[in-house]
Design brief:
This protein is an alpha+beta fold. The protein contains four helices and seven strands, in the order E-E-E-H-H-E-H-E-E-E-H. It has helices spanning 29-34, 43-46, 73-76, 116-128, and strands at 5-10, 19-24, 27-28, 62-67, 79-86, 89-96, 112-115. The strands form two sheets. The protein has a four-stranded antiparallel sheet with strand order 4-5-6-7. It is globular and about 40 Å long.
Length: 136
C-alpha cells in the first residue's frame, strides 16, 4: 500500500512568510518531526516561478529541506529528506531531523513510498495553485 501526500500552502504568519506543509497519511510531517512553532519551506522556494519545483522526483536522488525548528535551521539543523523516483514509486528516505527538536534523541519519520502518478499530480496541483503569490 502506498503512502498519501497532501501539500498545503499556509498564509503568512507573524514571523514567517507563506510556507508549505506536507501531510503524509493525514499527519503533518513538519510538526511531527520539528514540533510546534517550526516551519516548512517558503512557498517561493518550493514553487519557484521560473523553474520546476524541487519537489518533483527524478531518478537522481537529492536532499530536500522540508522544515526547520522555531529557532531556525541555521541554529539546530533542518528537517531534510532524500527524494528519488524508482520506476513507478517516489521514495522519501534518509531523514535528517533538527537535533534540538527532540531530547534526548530524535524520532526519525519512516520511509515513505508514493505512487509516482499520484505524487506527480499532487506536486503539479500545488505548483499550479498560486493564490499565495499576492503575499510573496
Amino acid at each position: 500500500m502506498f503512502d498519501r501526500l497532501e501539500i498545503s500552502v499556509l498564509p503568512p504568519g507573524p514571523r514567517f512568510p507563506v510556507q508549505v506543509r506536507f501531510w503524509v497519511n493525514g499527519e503533518d510531517v513538519v510538526e511531527e518531526a520539528v514540533g510546534q512553532g517550526g516551519r516548512g519551506p517558503y512557498a517561493t522556494d518550493a514553487f519557484p516561478a521560473c523553474r520546476p519545483s524541487p519537489l518533483r522526483a527524478t531518478g537522481e536522488a537529492r536532499r530536500l529541506e522540508l522544515g526547520e525548528p522555531d529557532c531556525t535551521g541555521g541554529c539546530c539543523g533542518f528537517l531534510a529528506v532524500v527524494v528519488r523516483r524508482r520506476g513507478e514509486i517516489v521514495q522519501w528516505s534518509d531523514w535528517e531531523v533538527p537535533w534540538a527538536a527532540h531530547t534526548p534523541a530524535p524520532h526519525l519519520p519512516p520511509e515513505f513510498h508514493f505512487d509516482a502518478r499520484r505524487y506527480d499530480a499532487e506536486v503539479a496541483r500545488a505548483e499550479a495553485d498560486r493564490w499565495w503569490r499576492v503575499y510573496a
